[in-house]
Amino acid sequence: MKTDNFLRQRADRVWLTEAACDLEDFRVEVERTTQLSDYPHAASVEKNVLIYDASRVLKTAGTDDGRRAVLAEICEAFATGPGVIVLKQGFEDTGVIDAASRVFDEIINEQHRTNTGGGDHFAKPGANDRIWNSLEKHCLKDPENFAAYYGNALIALVSEAWLGPSYQMTAQVNRVNPGGAAQSAHRDYHLGFQASAVIEQFPAHVHRLSPVLTLQGAVAHCDMPLESGPTLFLPFSQTYVPGYLALKREEFRDYFDKNHVQLPLSKGDLVFFNPALFHAAGTNRSVDIKRVANLLQVSSAFGRAMETVNRERMSATLYPALKAMLVDGRLTDAQARNAIASCAEGYSFPTNLDRDPPLGGLAPKTQAQLMHEALAGRWEVDAFAAALAAQSEKKLS
Ligand SMILES: [Fe+2]
After folding, report:
1. What is the spatial distance between Cα 358 and Cα 348, in angstroms, rounded to a whole number?
2. What distance in angstroms lies between residue 10's CA and the mean position of ligand 1's atoms?
3. What's the CATH number of domain 16-299, 3.30.390.30, 2.30.30.230, 3.40.50.1240, 2.60.120.620?
């Protein structure tokens, strides 16, 4: 017969509680220094955050061995390292970003005119403008700009480094106007969006699972000096397993307030971080900077994304744009592949196995595969739209 002590220890291992979070344990995790020598593809370490030079990363990723090495490095930076990386000049051509910003401005103005659009769950209403599901809205409004924007090689590379292939892109624009207050420190989706009473019902391994189901990213749409309030981060805080519960406690929030770091960003920079990293958008103390970021939330093929996205409608809209841009050389095959990965459903399941059986493999054809097939065969737009609709229909129960 096992002792009561043994049973209690086991239960404490499996059932994490807000009450058991310990600031001293946490400090052991976060009071570490990022060593540049552990991340040889990075250009520097600033305030414990790894800074990469986008062009150097892409050059390294140009060979199979280089790609393997750089993806592994980024993966471990998120898992056991500081948990956050900045890719300087992730968009070399900021004209693509400016065009996307105009699309976002139009959508925000429309939201104001029609009194639609949601609030921000971590900030007071009115201080910020949000575009929920900016991914789909962007694609439907300007598919050519969407193709150029999500054709970005680094967004694809970092997403794959953390999640593997067939990830599901979602995006939300956040425009923090001057005077907009800071968010409260939080972790992100999945467990980051639950109350302690709910979080405590999930066994410890789910606390470890939640961070590998998504990746957080941001594209800087303007220069963001510190006074404009770029995101506050606490490096290494993603490694504290009970962190989803700890953030509900005052001493952890105080610790975040005293120890967070903040880096200025330039238009075109990309930031990616482990969704379990403690973070918060900063206060915009500037007089005239509307701080605009497109926040990427990339989900694992095996997870459920936070937002509903009509990927069939997006794919039907994007296809003619991709076809035209490939023909006249405005898009490379690699860029088209990246744009498709951010648009179409890349995973075969769930499906209706009566109507959509696996053919010549273990998994039925995906929406992304259909799109590749159509582009390779230069299908007519109508033929692709019909095939897309038929495929979606087949997957319904
Ligand atoms: Fe967040």
Report:
1. 9
2. 32
3. 2.60.120.620
Identify the helix (H) or strand (E) that includes residue 141: helix 134-141
Length of the chain: 397
Helix (H) or strand (E) holding 129: strand 128-131
CB atoms within 10 A of CB 379: 18
Ligand 1 centre distance from Cα of residue 348 (Å): 29
Residue 188 Cα to ligand 1 middle (Å): 5
Alpha carbon of 279 to ligand 1 centroid (Å)? 6
**How remote is the CA of residue 295 from the centroid of ligand 1, in Å?**
9
Give the Å distance between the CA of 34 and the centre of ligand 1: 22
171 within 8 A of 215, measured Cβ to Cβ? no
| Rounded distance from Cα 167 to ligand 1 centre (Å) | 19
Residue-by-residue pLDDT tens, the chain, 397 positions: 678 899 999 999 999 999 999 999 999 999 999 999 999 999 999 999 999 999 999 999 999 999 999 999 999 999 999 999 999 999 999 999 999 999 999 999 999 898 887 665 555 556 689 999 999 999 999 999 999 999 999 999 999 999 999 999 999 999 999 999 888 999 999 999 999 999 999 999 999 999 999 999 999 999 999 999 999 999 999 999 999 999 999 999 999 999 999 999 999 999 999 999 999 999 999 999 999 999 999 999 999 999 999 999 999 999 999 999 999 999 999 999 999 999 999 999 999 999 998 877 788 999 999 999 999 999 999 999 999 999 999 999 9
Q: How far, CA to CA in Å, does 134 sit from each of 104, 107, 146, 248, 295? A: 8, 9, 11, 29, 9
If you measure from the C-alpha of residue 78 to the centroid of ligand 1, how many angstroms do you get, rounded to a whole number? 15
Compute the distance from residue 280 Cα to the ligand 1 centre, in Å. 6
Residue 301 alpha carbon to ligand 1 centre in Å: 21
Instruction: Tell me the CA–centroid distance for residue 395 and ligand 1, in Å.
Output: 33
Is the separation of the CB atoms in 67 and 52 below 8 Å?
no
CA of 170 to the centre of ligand 1 (A): 14
pTM over 0.85: yes
Sketch the domain layout of the chain as residue ranges: 16-299, 311-395
How far, in Å, is the centroid of ligand 1 from the Cα of 41?
Answer: 27
